[in-house]
Design a protein that fits this description.
The protein is of the alpha/beta class. 41% of the residues lie in helices and 9% in strands. A five-stranded parallel β-sheet has the order 1-2-3-7-6, sandwiched between helices. A hairpin with a 2-residue loop joins strand 4 and strand 5. The chain is globular.
C-alpha cells in the first residue's frame, strides 16, 4: 500500500519547489493596541514640558528663517515649523542613555527635542566654530555622538539604511537600546528603505521606522508621487507591523511611542509608524511653495496646529494666558541669545578644512 503524503496538501509530480510557509502567520498590526488608548495620560508637569519644547522648536526655526533672510545662514535650510509634535512626542519616550536617533536634513527640531543647547545648534547653522559640528555641517548635517544623535543626512533615504546599522549595533552589543529612524514621505519611495525593512525584519532588529508624512515630497503632493499613500502599510510585505498616527497631536504621538517602543524592546522586531503632519513653510527656505494655496496652509494653522492644541488643553486645565505668554517670552529670549551667540562666535580656522576627513585610527 502506498504511503500517504505527510504534508497537508499533496504535491503534484514534477511540481516546482515552493518555499515553506508559516500557516499560522498573522500580521498583527499595532493599530489595535494603539486604539485602546490613543492619548497619552500626561500629568500637568509633562504637558507643560511638551508645550515648552514644541514652542522652543517653533521660535528657534522662526529665528533661523530670519537669519537666512539676512544672509547669515548659507546653503540649504529646511525648517520644522508645524511638525513639532512628532519629534517631541517620540523623543520624550526614549531612553537617552541607550537609544539612538537618526534623521534626514530637516534636523534642527530633532536636536532641540533631544535637549541639545540651542546656542551650538544656531552656531552650526551660521557656520561657526562653536557649532555642534564645528561649523562644517551646517543645517543638514547636525551630529552628536554624545547624545547618540547620528545626523542630519542630506542624501534622501540614506539615514534609514544607517539606522538599520545602528539597530544592529544595539542588538550586537546587547545594550537594550533601540534606534529611531526618521524619514519623509518622499524618502519612502527609495529602494534602500525597503532593503533595510527586509534586513530589519529578518534579523528582528530593534528599530522604529518613522515616516514624517508632511503631505509634500519636496514640491509634489504625496498622492501624485506615491501609489500607496498609507505609508504605515508599506512594511506589510516584510511582516513589519504598522501604525497610523496623528502627528499634529503630541499626546497621540507619545501614546503611539509607548506601544511601538514596547513592541521593539520585547524583542519582536521593527515597527513602521506613519505620523501625518504638515509643514507650514516651503520644503526649504528657497522654496516659494506655489504648489499649494494659502488657504490650505491657513486651515492647517487654525484648526490643527500642535502647539495651539496643547495650549488649549493647558488653559482648560487651569493655566492662564498670562503664564503661557511668560513662557513664550522666556523662550524668545533664549532663542535671541542663541542667535547673538552664533553671530559673535568666530568662523572655523582655515585648517579645519583638513580635519574630520579621514579616520585616523580604528
Amino acid at each position: 500500500m502506498a504511503k500517504k503524503p505527510t504534508s497537508k496538501k499533496a504535491v503534484a509530480k514534477n511540481a516546482p519547489a515552493a518555499p515553506s510557509d508559516d500557516t499560522d502567520f498573522i500580521l498583527h498590526s499595532l493599530q489595535d493596541e494603539f486604539e485602546k488608548a490613543k492619548s497619552f495620560a500626561a500629568n500637568d508637569e509633562q504637558m507643560l514640558e511638551f508645550y515648552k519644547q514644541m514652542l522652543l522648536i517653533r521660535r528657534f526655526e522662526e529665528k533661523a528663517g530670519q537669519l537666512y533672510g539676512l544672509g547669515l545662514i548659507g546653503g540649504f535650510c529646511h525648517l520644522y515649523i508645524g511638525q513639532e509634535a512628532v519629534a517631541i512626542g517620540l523623543q520624550s519616550a526614549l531612553d537617552n542613555d541607550k537609544d539612538s536617533v537618526i534623521t534626514g536634513y530637516r534636523d534642527h527640531g530633532h536636536m532641540l527635542a533631544y535637549g541639545i543647547d540651542p546656542k551650538v545648534i544656531m552656531a552650526e547653522l551660521t557656520g561657526r566654530e562653536a557649532g555642534i559640528s564645528k561649523g562644517k555641517g551646517g543645517s543638514m548635517h547636525m551630529f552628536s555622538t554624545e547624545h547618540k544623535f547620528y545626523g542630519g543626512h542630506g542624501i534622501v533615504g540614506a539615514q534609514v539604511a544607517l539606522g538599520g546599522g545602528l539597530a544592529l549595533a544595539h542588538q550586537y552589543d546587547e545594550d537594550g537600546g533601540l534606534c529611531l529612524a526618521y524619514f519623509g514621505d518622499g524618502a519612502a519611495n527609495q529602494g534602500q528603505v525597503y532593503e533595510t525593512f527586509n534586513m530589519a525584519a529578518l534579523w528582528k532588529l530593534p528599530i522604529v521606522f518613522v515616516v514624517e508624512d508632511n503631505q509634500y515630497a519636496m514640491g509634489t503632493a504625496s498622492s501624485r508621487s506615491s501609489a500607496e499613500t498609507r505609508f504605515h502599510r508599506r512594511g506589510t510585505a516584510f511582516r513589519i507591523p504598522g501604525m497610523e498616527v496623528n502627528g499634529m497631536d503630541v499626546l497621540e504621538v507619545r501614546a503611539a511611542a509607548e506601544v511601538a517602543f514596547k513592541h521593539v524592546r520585547d524583542g519582536k522586531g521593527p515597527v513602521l509608524m506613519e505620523c501625518n503632519t504638515y509643514r507650514y513653510r516651503g520644503h526649504s527656505m528657497s522654496d516659494p511653495a506655489k504648489y499649494r494655496t494659502r488657504d490650505e496652509v491657513q486651515e492647517q494653522r487654525e484648526n490643527h496646529d500642535p502647539i495651539e492644541r496643547l495650549k488649549k488643553s493647558l488653559i482648560e486645565g487651569g493655566h492662564d494666558e498670562a503664564s503661557l505668554k511668560a513662557i513664550d517670552k522666556d523662550i524668545r529670549r533664549t532663542v535671541t541669545e542663541a542667535a547673538d551667540f552664533s553671530e559673535s562666535s568666530p568662523e572655523p580656522v582655515p585648517g579645519e578644512l583638513y580635519t574630520d576627513v579621514l579616520v585616523e585610527e580604528y
